Amino acid sequence: MKIKVDGISKQFGNKQILKSINLEIEPNRIYGLLGRNGAGKSTLLNILTDRIFPNGGSVTVDGETIHESDELLGKMYLMSEVNLYQKRSRLQDLFKATRLMYGGFDDVYAKHLCDAFGLNPKLRFGQLSTGYRTIFKLIIALSLPVDFVFLDEPILGLDANHRELFYKELLDSYSQHPRTFVISTHMIEEIANMIEHVFVLEKGEILVDDDVDHMLSQAYVITGPGETVDSYTEGLNIIGSESLGNLKGNYVFGSLNDDREIPDTIQISRMDLQKLFIHLTSEGSTVE
Ligand SMILES: Nc1ncnc2c1ncn2[C@@H]1O[C@H](COP(=O)(O)OP(=O)(O)OP(=O)(O)O)[C@@H](O)[C@H]1O
């Protein structure tokens, strides 16, 4: 089962939020959906799961429009900041209701997760702190028998220990039952090792649609004396730079010119995903 997003556009009032987005989401992969605040990530995830309608374009799964198929929508789950639950409902009853809605729910795994996170399922939703509301929603997302799990800012309010635990549980769960996860978060460093493919949304458009390894294999930091760095990187795709006294670092995205001799005084190292994202999405940078 593959999701195909074809020419999706969305306007709110006269503001164009998404501009003809095209992408494909393959089975059994972990994706990162990255973008600055207001880039349109939640809007896209809401359209993918039919919570809001686009102004143009289509979302299909193996050729079938999701909008017309409850069966396909039942294979997707979007966990988002929105609280869909009544405050007085007990968590254990919400688990049961979720089972009825989706036709399945892994109670044993949900219990394991409740124990691991220290969440008492007898509590009412309204009694939970912000972090535990997130944990409850994550438990639902991980325990459902769906093929596509969309997580919109899944670590809202989680402390560092709970974030670590969530990443570990997600990977364990993925290796036991491979399915697709699309994770939208600003904690890029923390998920960088987990995601295989990345979509970067910038001002309503897809700026990057690439495997993480491939993307990072062309992301370099060239450091050394300012003049030498500038002359070595001349004509390359420089997406940012930093200076400290006479020392300079130019961030290059794209291939280096192999014919160019590397001066002894400069150093070439790899960029990490977070740095690459920051420089790609800062004003004035370009992707080639
Ligand atoms: N229901 C709505 N009505 C009007 N404007 C909206 C609505 N929902 C979203 N927007 C606007 O659309 C733009 C994109 O919002 P969206 O929530 O998709 O961004 P995002 O990438 O998820 O941002 P963040 O990282 O800050 O959560 C924003 O300018 C937002 O104000």
Task: Summarize the entry for a quick read.
With 288 residues, the chain is an alpha/beta fold. The chain is built from ten helices and 14 strands.
Describe the 3D structure:
With 288 residues, this protein is of the alpha/beta class. It is 32% helix and 30% strand. The strands form three sheets. A six-stranded mixed β-sheet has the order 6-7-8-3-9-10, with helices on both faces. Strands 2-1-4-5 form a four-stranded antiparallel β-sheet, with helices on one face. β9 and β10 form a beta hairpin. α4 (107-117) runs antiparallel to α5 (130-143). The chain is globular, with a radius of gyration of 22 Å. Adenosine-5'-triphosphate (ATP) binds at residues 12, 17, 35, 37-43.
Q: In order across it, which strands form the biggest sheet?
A: 6-7-8-3-9-10
Structural class: alpha/beta
List segments where confidence is low: pLDDT < 50 over at least 5 consecutive residues: none
**Helix content bin:** 25-40%
Count every helix, treating DSSP H or I runs of 4 or more residues as helices.
10
Biggest sheet character? 6 strands, mixed
Shape from CA axes? Answer: globular
What amount of the residues lies in strands?
Answer: 25-35%
Hetero compounds: adenosine-5'-triphosphate
Provide the succession of SSEs. EEEHEEHEHHHEHEHEEHEHEEEH
**What is the number of E strands?**
14
Mean pLDDT: 93
Radius of gyration: 22 Å
Q: How far is the first residue's CA from the last residue's CA? A: 31 Å
Pfam family, one: ABC_tran
Keywords: ATP-binding, Nucleotide-binding
GO molecular function, one term: ATP binding
Domain ABC transporter: 3-228
